[in-house]
């Protein structure tokens, strides 16, 4: 198995040389308008995932589980970049079915016991059967995409050669991206002041959305940075660098009267990138830096612009702005276990 996240040297350079141009900031900006339409369609579909409440507030807006609501949106947006017009509605439904199978395989990989046995890896177990089934269907799906692309076939012939990296981008990294979007909803619902300030900035820039999303000195940019800063790997996760401690307890985050554990996007207004260079990790380092980091920024900001122009976000249940949200135990990525109420503006 060869995918960019585990490669080094010339193999890593070859892999990134193929994918980096397809996932550049410029390409992501080219898709911003399409992203916006998909966010609107996603918001229209939210009633289908709205939860019944027992707090007497059923009629007040939509209440959603943040991680469940955000699960498929980034999956669709990144798939659009990878497959372009070849991705029909039917093809996306097939991708969702593949994702369900992929989740079963990954769950066994991370939480199973016998599945990690070298001996059992060669036996016809149910887990091995699911993994083989995914491999066959995944390859077949991409061959169909190549055929569907028609005149773009020449550009897509490398797809089969790099199936593992496409798998990594779509199925593994999207778990992370969907959690990032969910944490954005949760953090803004918990901090109504920051939410109000950001909405005011979004409305003030509604006549030039392209330029607004491109800027890196806005409250929109700082909100995305702040949410990522507060939501790295959970406490107790084995790691080389403790992202949580680095991103919250470094002295740079205690300046200006703010706690490093509080959600305060405006803290970045008084900090230069040099100030937090060694105190803030977002997309990894070196050859382990996220391959989709450029797309992620545009995706997050387009998501927030659409949501805050249409909804007011409220936290559901007890909460403390000084603590990290509860996380789900059935995911191998840090995923919030929190509900959010969305009130139409």
List the helices and strands and how they pair.
Layout: H1 9-19, H2 25-30, H3 32-44, E1 62-65, H4 66-69, H5 73-83, H6 89-111, H7 126-149, H8 153-156, H9 163-190, H10 192-204, H11 209-214, H12 219-230, H13 243-249, H14 293-310, E2 311-315, E3 339-344
Antiparallel strand pairs: 1-3, 2-3
Helix pairs in contact: 3-14, 5-9, 6-7, 9-12, 9-14
Pfam families: p450
Family: Belongs to the cytochrome P450 family.
Protein name: Cytochrome P450
Q: Your description of this structure?
A:
One of its GO terms (molecular function) is monooxygenase activity. InterPro entries: Cyt_P450, Cyt_P450_CS, Cyt_P450_sf, Cytochrome_P450_monoxygenase. It holds the Pfam family p450. There is one protein chain. This protein is mainly alpha-helical. It has a single domain (4-344), classed as Cytochrome p450 (Orthogonal Bundle). 52% of the residues lie in helices and 4% in strands. The chain is built from 14 helices and three strands. A three-stranded antiparallel β-sheet has the order 1-3-2. Helix 3 (32-44) packs across helix 14, helix 6 (89-111) runs antiparallel to helix 7 and helix 9 (163-190) packs parallel to helix 14. The chain starts with 8 loop residues before the first helix and ends with a strand. The mean pLDDT is 83.
């Amino acid at each position: 198995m060869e995918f960019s996240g585990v490669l080094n040297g010339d193999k890593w350079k070859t892999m990134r040389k193929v994918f980096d141009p397809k996932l550049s900031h410029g390409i992501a900006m080219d898709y911003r308008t399409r992203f916006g339409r998909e966010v609107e369609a996603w918001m229209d579909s939210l009633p289908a995932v709205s939860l019944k409440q027992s707090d007497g507030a059923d009629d007040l807006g939509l209440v959603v589980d943040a991680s469940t609501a955000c699960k498929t949106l980034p999956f669709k947006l990144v798939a659009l970049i990878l497959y372009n017009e070849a991705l029909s509605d039917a093809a996306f439904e097939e991708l969702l079915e593949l994702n369900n199978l992929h989740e079963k395989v990954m769950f066994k990989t991370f939480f199973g016991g016998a599945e990690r046995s070298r001996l059992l890896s060669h036996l016809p177990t149910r887990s091995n059967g699911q993994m083989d089934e995914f491999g066959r269907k995944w390859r077949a799906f991409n061959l169909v995409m190549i055929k569907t692309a028609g005149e773009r076939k020449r550009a897509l012939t490398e797809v089969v050669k790099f199936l593992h990296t496409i798998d990594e981008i779509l199925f593994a990294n999207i778990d992370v991206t969907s959690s990032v979007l969910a944490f954005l909803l949760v953090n803004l619902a918990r901090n109504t002041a920051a939410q109000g300030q950001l909405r005011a900035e979004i409305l003030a820039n509604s006549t030039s959305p392209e330029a607004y999303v491109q800027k890196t000195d806005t409250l929109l940019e700082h909100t995305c940075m702040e949410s990522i800063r507060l939501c790295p790997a959970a406490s107790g996760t084995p790691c080389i660098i403790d992202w949580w401690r680095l991103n919250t307890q470094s002295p740079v985050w205690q300046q200006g009267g703010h706690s490093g554990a509080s959600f305060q996007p405006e803290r970045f207004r008084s900090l230069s990138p040099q100030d937090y260079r060694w105190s803030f990790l977002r997309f990894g380092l070196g050859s382990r830096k996220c391959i989709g980091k450029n797309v992620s920024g545009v995706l997050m900001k387009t998501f927030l612009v659409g949501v805050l122009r249409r909804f007011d976000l409220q936290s559901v249940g007890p909460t403390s702005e000084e603590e990290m949200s509860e996380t789900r135990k059935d995911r191998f990525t840090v995923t919030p276990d929190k509900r959010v109420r969305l009130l139409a503006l």
